[in-house]
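User: Modeling request: complex.
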Amino acid sequence: MKSSFLSRLLDHTEKIDKQQVVDYLVEVAEERDLLRFIFDSMMEGMAVIGSDMTVSYLNRAAADLFGVEDIDEVLGKPAQRIIRNRRILQLCEEGFHALEGNLHRELFLRMEDREIYLETNVVPLHLPRNEFAILLLFVDRTEERRVEERLRHAEKLASLSTLTAGMSHEIRNPLNSLSIHLQLLRRKLRRREDQDGETMEILGVLENEIKRLNNVLTSFLNAARSDAASFIRLSPRSLITDTLALMRPDLENEGIEVIVHEEGEVPEIRGDPVQLKQAFINILKNAVDAIKEASQTLLEEGRGPGERRVTITLVSEEGQVNFIFTDTGAGILDSDMQKVFEPYFTTREGGTGLGLMIVSRIVHEHHGDVNIRSRIGQGTQVIVSLPMAPEPTKLLEHAAFPAATETE
Ligand SMILES: Nc1ncnc2c1ncn2[C@@H]1O[C@H](COP(=O)(O)OP(=O)(O)OP(=O)(O)O)[C@@H](O)[C@H]1O
Ligand SMILES: [Mg+2]
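Assistant: Request completed. Predicted assembly structure:
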């Protein structure tokens, strides 16, 4: 890029004295610093790659994306050494082949410690002396994507709630009637003298199946319903203690050890205890299922039952309290990871696939977030982050003033 000062300087080379050259150069340097400052302040990433695939320019946002600390140090170096992401490099190469016109791509990238959604543009640059380069422009759309995802989720929830309300109404009535008639039948059979054990057994199966259907309907209704939450200040520790009291039979039956661990001082949160307990129960039930599955696989492979443990860690950071549930279960396949919060997605026999959807609804109603990390064969970590309760307002200052008396 030729500076306007430089152009003027070149136009008057014969007439100018040394001092003027110095002044011009100072102005050029200032102009360059200003441009650098502007480009480095932009949220958008910019990178210029020469036709020999060397990096000619990076602004701060692009350098951050590629993990570069000192920009000057990487200028002139091969792009392959700086941009380690295969898909971005491919895009550069495509940019050189599509000599005219911009390229627009949306990329979903797995970086070392996070996943990002980038909108990228490749603009061809025809430089003086027939040189050719490309300008890569990046905009990080991860947050927008997340918001869109939540919105889509909320829409799904809304249509699910209409559907379930109608459906459960239609199914519950005939189910109730079936259940009543089965009871009548059972009573009649009991009165008969030639009682037949097999018939009674069949009746039992029918009654149990009806009960199961009823439970499924109740879960569907719970998933769709959003009860008005009543928020109070809560201690994270006692929330976990109360949840574990409810889950104890399931955990003990399966011989699962539970460790609760508090890292440092864990402040209070604000929330609805009933709903939060429901969310934690769903997470713990999934952990129990996953541990059962892992043990089953290990036993089938003749490798003993394996570890059966759930660790619950409470830790606060940056205005949040994190509830981290770590299990030693079977883990989640990478290909399933995107789907686990979707309604009806299940890999469990008899599962409705609504558990995590309920968790996500409750946590989002508490202005929190839920994230899952998992390694197949090693276990899963579900992290629920909830905002800390605000400091109670201090009213002590008022005590310094004498209270007004009625006689005054
Ligand atoms: N801790 C976990 N370990 C391994 N897989 C898990 C874990 N939590 C969830 N999953 C996976 O996510 C799926 C969806 O979970 P979700 O709780 O929504 O439904 P579900 O457990 O299958 O059925 P439901 O909770 O309705 O009985 C599960 O089927 C399982 O594949
Ligand atoms: Mg579940």
